[in-house]
Amino acid sequence: MQVIEQIQNEQDIKAAKILVVDDQPVNVKLLEKVLVAEGYPNIISTSDSREAVALYRQHQCDIVLLDLNMPHIDGFGVMQELHNLDEDYPPVLVLTALKDRDSRVRALESGARDFVSKPFDRVELLSRIRNMLEVRMLNQAIKRQNQILEEKVYERTRELDETRLEIIRRLGRAAEYRDNETGLHIIRMSQYSQILGLADGMTESEADMLLNASPMHDIGKIGIPDSILLKPGKLTPDEWKIMKTHSTIGAEILSGHQSELMMEARQIALMHHEKWDGSGYPKGRSGDEIPLVGRIVAIADVFDALTTVRPYKKAWNVEDAVDYIAQNSASHFDPRLVELFLKILPEVLIIRAKYPEPYFGA
Fold it and tell me: Over the stretch 212-253, which tens digit does the pLDDT of each residue have?
């Protein structure tokens, strides 16, 4: 395996694309001859420094052999143009007859990795080129490996997120099955909530968060006795008092985790039965004291509950449910959100038609 890796590494190095930039054609020809003889077939060259950057971008060269003293654009100018590219800055080997320290320091500060003095020694030149290419190939291998790792981490994170969201949806449906046999209520009302949030100016990510958090709004029903939850008639005052605890039970179930999703789900579970005029439960908050997500879910939840059969009632038709929402604007519901809900009603009805309750008639 080690031998194979060495062969592959050697092949990669010799396959490197080398850009030669020197205003003297004789120097260009000499460099081409030396490199080809050493087994480097991919040589791109120019004696016009104005073509250097375009050739680099076109061929995605692995190393640049660059003269400093050139007309039009000198080597320092070429390095500056290379720096301005979005691509990774290539290793630059400066070929220069300049001996002064200032020129060398300036070249290093401009991005040069190494020097070869003219007239160059063939062995020294090839050794420096090879060393720079080995570093280049190693860096590229590390980048490819990091990219693979990032893709794996992303995919694993996506799978974990999908699993977490699916668990949340299923827990929401488990609670909903207590008093609604299909569990479709949470699918519809969460999508109603999402499009109402978007209509109110939420970003896509905020509305997606609402979509995924709202299915847990009635998780607290798990803690309500069947004798109360499934009672076909009107609840007594004591039974209603117990029934109202499902909001605090739900908040307790969802508490203790610092993820944004769980915190929003807890907020919705606790606040979706609060009313605009302060007559709701469990805290009797009013107006903007009620979190926006709670006010949005309140409308979506009530509309879908009204238009769905429950053990204690028949389904209302859409017109009556819409009238109820409108009539309770500024008392039960945020009036601004009611106005938006009425505007997006056609979208709401499309969702409702997509997820209808099965008919269990005779």
Answer: 999 999 999 989 998 998 888 889 999 999 999 999 999 999
Residue 18, helix vs strand vs coil: strand
Quote the pTM value: 0.60
C-beta of residue 45 within 8 angstroms of C-beta of residue 32: yes
With the CA atoms of 123, 129, 135 and 136 taken in that order, what torsion angle do they form, in degrees rounded to the nearest 10? -160
Domain membership of residue 248 (yes or no) is: yes
- Write down the residue that tokens 């020129």 correspond to: 103
How far is CA 319 from each of CA 48, 311, 342, 354, rounded to the nearest angstrom?
78, 22, 11, 18
Total number of domains in the chain? 2
List the structure tokens of 323. Answer: 């009238």
Mean pLDDT of 133-145: 87
Quick check: 169 and 186 in contact, CB under 8 A?
yes
* Average pLDDT, integer, range 184-191: 91
Q: Are residues 101 and 227 in the same domain?
A: no
* Burial track 168-181 (b if 16+ CB lie within 10 A, e otherwise): bbebbbebbebbbe
Could you tell me which of 45, 83, 50, 81 has the C-alpha nearest to residue 64? Answer: 45
Report the alpha-carbon angle 231-305-248, nearest 5. Answer: 70
